[in-house]
Amino acid sequence: MTVVGPRAGTPLLDAAEGLHEALPGHRVEIVGGRLLVTPPPDSGHARSLTRLTFALAPFQGHGTEVVQGVGLWLPTGDEDYAVPDLAVVEVGFGKHAVAFNCCAPEVFRMVVEITSSNRITDLTTKPQSYAAAAVPVYVVGDRRRREVVVFSDPRGGEYRSRAVYPSGERFLVPEVVRMGSDFPADPRSDGSDGTDGAGPPVELDVDDFLIVE
């Protein structure tokens, strides 16, 4: 994917930069040509991110890293970018900076959002944007509906797979997230389980996404 940075005359980016300076702790994004401002996370949101960071620890140090608040430059508009709550990225992602502290989308293996005031955007606009950027997996913790939605298989600007997991369930992180990583071999696996002998699949608890207080 060819990533193009902002062209001359960027009124939305200028406004975003002003808001970022005026509202410390707020998340400022431009998605689908719209300027979005999200207040600082509530306690439940913050606790969810902490739990998920620990749960995704197997992705730390095997060709990938788990990071919070790293911007993703989007191909959907001259000024579009998103700042996912959490992401699994390739090691060395900082070398792929595009503009406005955002990195090229190809270094992102998975992005995670926990719904807050911009819930509708997380569930409707962002799937289109992340699919257009060919991010392999997008996971949304919908705290209102008490479920997690996993989007995967981006093709033709949309995700071809959408799986929903209700509170109380667990789910496996799609194998594509660690594809190409140097995960240690799992001595218990001979590859017949579809993991090619890689480390054991990473399983996440839906309720870790849904903490409200």
Strand order of the largest sheet: 3-6-9-10-11-12
The helicity comes to 10-25%
The count of helical stretches stands at 3
Mean pLDDT comes to: 89
What is the name of the CATH superfamily?
Answer: tt1808, chain A
State the shape: globular
Strand content: 25-35%
Report low-confidence residues grouped into runs of 5 or more. Answer: 188-197
CATH class: Alpha Beta
| Fold-level CATH name | tt1808, chain A
Run of helices and strands: HEEHEEEEEEEHEEEEE
Pfam family, one: Uma2
GO molecular function: endonuclease activity
Domain Putative restriction endonuclease: 24-180
Keywords: Endonuclease, Hydrolase, Nuclease
Spell out the key features of this protein.
213 residues, alpha+beta, tt1808, chain A, 6-stranded mixed β-sheet, 4-stranded mixed β-sheet, 3 helices, 14 strands, globular, nuclease
What does this structure look like?
By secondary structure, the protein is of the alpha+beta class. The chain has a single domain (41-209), classed as tt1808, chain A (Alpha-Beta Complex). The chain is 18% helix and 31% strand. The protein has 3 helices and 14 strands. A 6-stranded mixed β-sheet has the order 3-6-9-10-11-12. The longest helix has 14 residues, at 119-132. Residues 24-180 form the Putative restriction endonuclease domain.
